[in-house]
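User: Is it possible to get a 3D structure for a protein together with its bound compound? The compound here is flavin-adenine dinucleotide. I've pasted both below.
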Amino acid sequence: MPGLDPYRDLRDGVRKLCARFPDSYWRELDEQGAYPEAFVRAMTDAGYLAALIPPEYGGAGLGVAEASVILEEVHRSGGNAAACHAQMYVMGALLRHGTPEQKQRYLPRIARGELRLQAFAVTEPEAGSDTPSIRTTAVRRGDRYVISGQKVWTSRVEQSDLMLLLARTTPPEQVRRRGEGLSLFLVDLRANLGKTLHVRPIRTMINHPTAEVFLEDLEVPLEDRIGEEGQGFRCILDGMNVERILIAAECIGDGDYFLDRATAYARERRVFGRPIGQNQGIQFPLAQAYARVRAADLMRFRAAELYDAGLPCGPEANMAKLLAAEASWEAANAALQTFGGYGFAREYPIERKFRETRLYQVAPVSTNLVLAYLAHQVLGLPRSY
Ligand SMILES: Cc1cc2nc3c(=O)[nH]c(=O)nc-3n(C[C@H](O)[C@H](O)[C@H](O)COP(=O)(O)OP(=O)(O)OC[C@H]3O[C@@H](n4cnc5c(N)ncnc54)[C@H](O)[C@@H]3O)c2cc1C
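Assistant: Yes, that's possible. Here is the predicted structure of the complex:
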């Protein structure tokens, strides 16, 4: 019911922008393993990546619901917002936990796109999903911290000016609770790249810029620590709900992309003298996927509504991410089956997205960890780890 959609104007604006970047644009980048620089520039210039920055710092001051609609539309058009979506939400830690001076120093320039803060270095090779056991260490020396260690899967590090980094400032045996003793830092990549910070790109099954990061005595001034020392994990936790809602929206965009393309193909493609879409064997998987995408969509908006009202939304944000990632994958499979052999052909619109949408059951948080959160925190079952 388009008449009831409160986001119609916003959707139209994003769609218009995305129409300049058709399937062929993304396919060529995918083949070259190249960064979608022109697309990211267009998104920045249109102000979409500053959606969540308050107007006093030069942003659009929109809610998470609107931000999620922007990313959803990018994905529904066939694009992939992972090249730049973190520019929207990584700054949230600075906004919520930074000092007035830090916010004034960075946020207006991030809003204008002069500074890219879209790298977020949390995951480490040994810790994996168990973030509190990270080993990268920051030692206070006078007016600065000296940081050494290793990160992995640090996405967009080569396309960022600044990076948010989580490191241990107090040894685990000296803290009262797991998760304490970690601190958050804003790292100036330009000043340190190739000196105290080295990057080794990781090639993956999708066109996504991500890398290992090696830190050797990287110096960060005291004034670039975000939030209190030892409370860094808490500072990133409240931003994770935003990330989960936005990723859910990308999955919903993917789900609708698959359904748009597959239903169009099923109407056109004729075999045995009739459209393949006339067969229930083709219709039902698409209808089932459609129902699941719509259900996940409701949970996305419920989570966004709670977040934007300043209310707790952990369960809803996690369920939205879980359900949407599963729904987009179901739609991907139904679309691949509908396209038959052509589903595997590079010049057809399914196989790239098929690879891309699979990621969301693993990153930024794996499905098992979401289920464990729901089991422990919502259902009150004993912790499994
Ligand atoms: C393309 C890509 C981009 C990424 N970008 C970033 C980024 O920008 N910044 C960043 O910090 N990280 C990033 N990540 C890392 C991502 O968040 C992690 O891959 C993810 O959190 C899982 O960690 P892991 O890969 O070490 O898996 P592991 O923790 O080793 O887990 C492997 C499997 O075991 C399961 N498992 C582990 N423990 C349990 C348990 N207790 N119960 C049940 N199942 C369990 C997991 O669910 C998973 O399926 C990215 C990853 C990818 C692939």
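The beta strands are 117-121, 137-141, 144-151, 162-168, 182-188, 197-201, 211-221, 225-226, 270-271, 274-275. The first helix runs from residue 8 to 19.
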